[in-house]
Structures are given as C-alpha cells and as structure tokens.
Design brief:
single chain, alpha+beta, FAD/NAD(P)-binding domain, 10 helices, globular, flavoprotein, FAD-dep_OxRdtase, FAD
C-alpha cells in the first residue's frame, strides 16, 4: 500500500493530534494548513486548560468514550515529554439542597463512565479540601488535572515536523475540491493536492464544510466565554477546581474556579454570543459572519427558548457586580478587589436547525474528506483519542 499524502486543515490541538497519528499509524506524508501564523491560536489557546474527567457525558457516547481514553493518553504524553500535568482534583459543589438529586445523578454517571475514586463528600470534608468554599455537599473527583494545552499543541507540532511533516501557517483555505485524481486544497497563496483531507477547523468548521460541498448543518455559532481571575494575593482562596452542579435546563455550565499550572485562578466563564466567529471582545464585529449566525433558523429558535438565560449572561458580561454575585454563591468572602478581568475565549458551538445544541462529537466522512463538525470541550482532553478514532476509520476505508 503506497504512502498516503494527507492534508489536515486546522492547527489546533485536534488537527495536530490527527496529523501526528497519521504519521505514526500510516507513515503518511502530512501537511497541516492553518490561516493563523501560530499553532493553537484560538480554542486551544483560550480555554481553562482542564483535563476533563468525563463526568458530564452520557455513558457510551463518543464524548464519554474518547474523553476517558484521552485522559490516559494525555497523562502519559505529558509524563514522557516533561510537560506539566497537575492532578489538583475537582469538587462539583451543591450550594442548595435542591441540587442534591442532580449531584447524586452525576456521582452515578461517574461510576458508569469509569472515573476512579469519585465520591460524594459532606460539607465538613468540602471545607477541609476547600476552606473558603460554601456548599451543602460536593462530588469529589480527585484525578481531575490541569495542563497547558498550548504547550502540548506546540509539542505535537514539533513531533510532526520532526517526523518529516509540514505545517504551513498563514494560509487561508478558500477552496476544497475532491476529484478522481485527489483532493485539491486552494489557499490564498497556493494549491495543494492530497489523497485525503481531514478538516479540524474549530470555529470555521461549518464554513469550511460548505466550501468542500458538504451540508451547512450543523452550524457553528460562536459563544464568548469571559473570565476574571483572582488577584495574586487572594489566589489561596481556591486550592484546586471548584465547579457548579449543572442545570439541565440551560446549555452552559456556569461560573467556576480553576487553578492553572501557573498558579493563577480563573473565575468563569460566562457565555455570551460573539459578534464575530473569532470575537474575543464586544467590539470584535464581523458583519457577514454575524448575519450568517443570526439568520440561521436554529439560532433564532435557540434565542426564543433561552432568551432569559441569554439576558442574564449578558448582564454578567457588562456588570462586574453581577458576575461577582454569582461567584459569591461558592466563595461568599470574595470582594470586588479580589478579581480582575482576564482573557476571553470563544467556543465553537454546533447548532441544529431546530435550535437544539449538538452535544456529542460529530465526525462526518465523505469521499476524500473527513470533517470534524463538532468538537467542543472536552476535545482538547480527548485530542489523542479523537485522533486514534479518525485515523482508524480512515484506515479501514482505504482500498
């Protein structure tokens, strides 16, 4: 079987993991293409850097399966390469008695998903682990870790180039055409022909899919997550990771506290509509992309259904006092001077025409092209396992 020549669109952590796996498994001649001048420029470089345990995902789903597999692969990789992998542990905190049923449901799901050493703890043990956190009970997941996903992505990139692959940055894809002689990627600077192309385009996934001739759905709608962080003198308020009990009525998790490998403690994020596909600030507006989002039938239906939550999230965006009040549900002693604005991220949220969010990973396979249509959190955690999955499916399909 001849050496396959494969193009990967997207130099985030998933695209780089896929390219690296293609080299390892198939000895493929790989070229990664990205419009940015650096790897990990968007979602990979703007997230909480948490190695997710898989507690939120339905047992048997692609998310649950690949997340659990991904945790082990990522831990081993970081150990081998001397990259930080800090198991700080996580508590999912019930602040009201009416959250206890949902907390116990999560505890059962943790067992079903094979997450080790997870258990429900009482208020006294919660205060022992997190002295400044208030709650009636919590689910303890001691194996939850934090890393630097940008550092891991850069290491993946070194693996790729070290094995003879290419990473071509600063090249925007404007065309993809599959034909009898291969798949032609046209960028704003050149044309390249491959035997197969894998699209891991994150925030640009639905746009690139359309360019390739695939259906628009599911559509990627950008949501910005805005963070604060604790000032250095108050970072001891949080020892590890403190999360809320998710409310199934709402599509996003809510404010939580995350201590990073650098010792900084992030508070957030909220979730507000971004006004550009890569809109990290309110003033980042791209009218063509904005119209694409607001005119999408699913976005209008989502807004009608969740307008109260949306209004509340926007209030937390523009008002520090509103944001602080929500954070105080967990750490009542927080003062306005304890938190300062930090970097925002933008989440690529896949949406169906009926207004329902796409929850699981979605990977479509077309002749000559593999499209990663939805890879939200925990995609960074699961990146090495996603890569295994994609390469295995492609390998089985080869003539």
């Amino acid at each position: 079987m001849s050496t396959p020549k494969i193009g990967v669109i997207g130099a985030g952590i998933v695209g780089l993991a896929v390219a690296r796996r293609l080299q390892q498994k198939l000895q493929a001649d790989v070229t990664v293409v990205d419009k940015e001048d650096v790897v990990a420029a968007h979602q990979t470089g703007h997230n909480s850097n948490v190695v997710h345990s898989g507690v939120y995902y339905p047992p048997g789903s692609l998310k649950a399966t690949l997340c659990r597999r991904g945790v082990g692969l990522l831990r081993d990789y970081c150990t081998q390469r001397g990259l930080p992998y800090d198991e700080l542990g996580k508590v999912i905190v019930a602040v009201r008695p009416d959250e206890l049923t949902r907390l116990n449901d999560l505890a059962k799901r943790a067992v079903d998903n094979g997450i080790p050493d997870t258990r429900v703890i009482d208020r006294a043990e919660l205060r022992e682990r997190e002295p400044h956190v208030e709650g009636v009970s919590a689910l303890l997941i001691p194996s939850t870790a934090v890393v630097s996903f940008p550092a891991i992505a850069r290491e993946f990139a070194r693996d790729i180039t070290g094995a003879g692959g290419e990473i071509r940055l600063g090249r925007r894809v404007v065309g993809i055409a599959a034909g009898s002689t291969g798949v032609v990627i046209t960028t704003d600077t050149e044309e390249m022909t491959f035997d197969h192309v894998v699209v891991c385009a994150g925030l640009q996934s639905s746009t690139i899919a359309e360019i390739s001739g695939a259906p628009r759905d599911p559509e990627i709608i950008p949501f910005r997550g805005e963070y604060y962080e604790l000032v250095a003198s108050r970072s001891d308020l949080v020892r590890g990771l403190v999360y809320p009990v998710p409310d199934p009525r709402y599509p996003f998790l809510g404010v939580h506290f995350t201590r990073g490998v650098d010792g900084h403690v992030h508070v957030g994020p909220n979730a507000v509509p971004a006004l550009a596909q890569e809109g990290y600030r309110w003033r980042d507006v791209e009218l063509k992309q904005l119209w694409r989002s607001v005119s999408y039938p699913g976005m209008r239906r989502l807004a009608r259904h969740h307008w109260r939550m949306g209004t509340s999230e926007i209030a937390g965006s523009v008002s520090k006092s509103v944001f602080l009040r929500r954070a105080r549900d967990y750490i009542p002693e927080l003062a306005p001077t304890d938190i300062v604005r930090a970097e925002s991220g933008v989440r690529a949220q896949a949406l169906k025409p009926d207004g329902n969010l796409v929850d699981d990973f979605v990977i479509h396979h077309r002749p000559g092209i593999t499209l990663v249509r939805n890879a939200p959190s925990p995609a960074a955690t699961a990146s090495l396992a996603i890569a295994e999955h994609i390469v295995e499916v492609y390998d089985r399909s080869r003539p």
